[in-house]
Design goal:
Blueprint lengths: L1 H14 L4 E4 L2 E4 L3 E9 L6 E6 L9 E2 L2 E3 L6 H13 L3 E14 L4 E12 L19 E4 L11 H8 L12 H17 L6 E4 L2 E4 H5 L3 H6 L5
Parallel strand pairs: 3-8
Antiparallel strand pairs: 1-2, 3-6, 4-5, 4-9, 7-8, 10-11
GO molecular function: 8-oxo-7,8-dihydrodeoxyguanosine triphosphate pyrophosphatase activity; 8-oxo-7,8-dihydroguanosine triphosphate pyrophosphatase activity; metal ion binding
Enzyme class: hydrolase
Keywords: Hydrolase, Magnesium, Manganese, Metal-binding
């Protein structure tokens, strides 16, 4: 009986800690997952984004945006278009980067870097969104950003985005290419680099990783910290 209990404890411990994997005889630290969420907007619903409610085991019952996992070789834009098409049957226009969050909940063995893209519903292609994955999502609705459910009812990455005071309807300035390149580099450093004090060097300057990860993307850009 003692051996069984010890075995169960070891299983639970391995699922709730940053365990190590082994490749070619060398230990490899467990890495965070990389996901992508999409802030879908529509001029017919001013100030609103598309919101659903999860039915899957992870985050069940919490509100979510369309999104999922980035596939190998896929750009952020391609992933955003694919996910909203698969989940809601719509196409986006004016697609752009929104922000990025680092979501950790070790008691649930959950650690994800989530990239948020933002795009407008392309009415020339599609009408209203439809729920194409009813086994995963209760349905889609337009919800005003300033009348969102409380954070405890949001899927963790979306709650983290709200904590940044991110404003999807704030007017954006130019410089998208440099901005995207900088934040893409930042995410890669954070996931594959050597810790929270790593920096990404690009566009002629070095940028602290944690500063950009934990601030709203809009605020960072408008303060002129990126070239």
């Amino acid at each position: 009986m003692l051996s069984v209990r010890r075995f169960i404890y070891q299983i639970r411990y391995s699922l709730n800690t940053m365990s190590e994997a082994v490749q070619n005889g060398k230990p490899i630290l467990k890495r965070p997952g990389v996901g992508l969420g999409v802030l879908v907007t529509d001029s017919s619903y001013p100030g609103c984004v598309l919101l659903g409610k999860r039915k899957t085991t992870v985050g069940k019952g919490t509100y979510q945006l369309p999104g999922g996992h980035i596939e190998f070789g896929e750009t952020w834009e391609e992933c955003a278009q694919r996910e909203v098409m698969e989940e809601a049957g719509v196409r986006l226009k004016n697609l752009r980067f929104g922000s990025v969050v680092n979501s950790i909940r070790l008691e649930e063995n959950y650690h994800y870097i989530t990239i948020f893209m933002q795009g407008e519903l392309d009415r020339s292609f599609s009408a209203e969104p439809v729920n194409l994955e009813p086994e995963k999502n209760e349905g889609w609705t337009w919800r005003r950003w300033d009348e969102f459910p409380p954070e405890e009812q949001l899927f963790l990455p979306l709650a983290n985005l709200r904590q940044q005071d991110f404003q999807p309807f704030r007017k954006r300035l130019g410089g998208w290419s440099a901005y995207q390149a900088a934040v893409q580099g930042l995410v890669l450093v954070h996931v594959f680099g050597s810790g929270p004090h790593s920096v990404w060097r690009g566009c002629g300057r070095s940028l602290p990783v944690q500063v950009l990860l934990h601030r709203g993307g809009e605020d960072v850009f408008l303060r002129g910290e990126l070239p």
